[in-house]
TrEMBL record:
Catalytic activity: (8S)-3',8-cyclo-7,8-dihydroguanosine 5'-triphosphate = cyclic pyranopterin phosphate + diphosphate
One protein family per Pfam: MoaC
Family under the similarity heading: Belongs to the MoaC family.
InterPro entries assigned to the protein according to its UniProt record, in alphabetical order: MoaC, MoaC_bact/euk, MoaC_sf, MoCo_biosynth_MoaA/MoaC, Mopterin_CF_biosynth-C_dom
Superkingdom to which the source organism belongs: Bacteria
Protein name: Cyclic pyranopterin monophosphate synthase
């Protein structure tokens, strides 16, 4: 079993010291889905969601979420983000959210990508809940990470 890095010898939480790590280019991609009623999908496609530009609000919320990750996740390092791209694709079942985050730093950006997807999904839910209070946020996960000691990791297609 590998050693837990976020606790000290007494079991107390701590932020990992990454100062000895090399700075390297790092990228992470995360995805998630918001399952929506056919009515909301139609409103998104026509741009007629009663609260306004739901997809635009969700996209900006996702970017803001990535930037605020260390304020939300207690042991997450505050790092400079060099790029955050949030994509929302309207499908027949709802909205597919993808976020890709880039940095050149000593630690990865998986948490930033996951937070961006999560916050985008929450903002989208907020924008459509009056029409579809049964919307479901699901399948938030890391799809790929590049850089650092691990190199490349990708989720299996299966």
């Amino acid at each position: 079993m590998s050693e837990l890095t976020h606790v000290d010898e007494t079991g107390a939480a701590r932020m990992v010291d990454v100062s000895a790590k090399d700075v390297s280019a790092r990228t992470a991609t995360a995805t998630g889905r918001v399952l929506l009623s056919a009515e909301v999908v139609s409103l998104l496609r026509s741009g007629e969601v009663p609260k306004g530009d739901a997809l635009g609000v969700a996209r900006i919320a996702g970017i803001m979420g990535a930037k605020r990750t260390p304020d939300l996740i207690p042991l997450c390092h505050p790092i400079a983000l060099h790029g955050v791209k949030v994509t929302l694709d309207v499908e027949d079942w709802g909205v597919a959210i993808t976020c890709r985050v880039k940095t050149a730093d000593r630690t990865g950006v998986e948490m930033e990508a996951l937070t961006a997807v999560s916050v985008a999904a929450l903002a989208l839910f907020d924008m459509v809940k009056a029409v579809d209070p049964g919307a479901v946020i699901t399948d938030v996960r890391v799809e790929e990470k590049l850089g650092g000691k691990t190199g490349r990791w990708a989720r299996d297609a299966s």
